[in-house]
Every structure is written in structure tokens, then in C-alpha cells.
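Closing statement on the zinc ion sub-project.
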Amino acid sequence: MDSSEKTSKPQTIATIDVNIQFPNFSEMNWNEEALYDHLHCCLCGSELQFHHKANRVQNFITEEASCPSCKIKTRESAHTIQ
Ligand SMILES: [Zn+2]
């Protein structure tokens, strides 16, 4: 291949295959959409796993959401026990 040759056509030098599942949001109402966002990974769409840790001394529960596919923690929040 002659490296001095100018080409005006874009070339594919690498491709990355990803497995992304797009839900059909047009058929969801805002409530279902918010719930979907809460329960699914923002990167790959997998169902999140939730872990809860109760802190009875300070009266709150820590909720951790993680994606089993991406192996990342997507969210952590604390809720007061009533
Ligand atoms: Zn994920």
C-alpha cells in the first residue's frame, strides 16, 4: 500500500460489537420509563442487582445497585427507616 496516496473515502479500521438492547420507550408511559431506568443498567440494559444494608444504629438502609454484566456499581442511596 502506498502511504502517500490520498484517499477521500473513509475506511473502517476497527469495529466494536456491543450488545445493547433498546427498550421501546414509545410504548411506555413516564411512570414505566422511570421504573425501567431504576431497575436496569444505563450502559447495557441488564437488570440490576440490589443489595441492602441496614444500619440500625443510625436508622437507615443503604441501597446499592450493580450491573452483573458490566460489573459496576451504578447507584448507591440511603433511605431512613421510618
Ligand atoms: Zn450493564
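The radius of gyration is 22 Å. With this model delivered, the sub-project is considered complete and its resources will be redirected to Aim 3.
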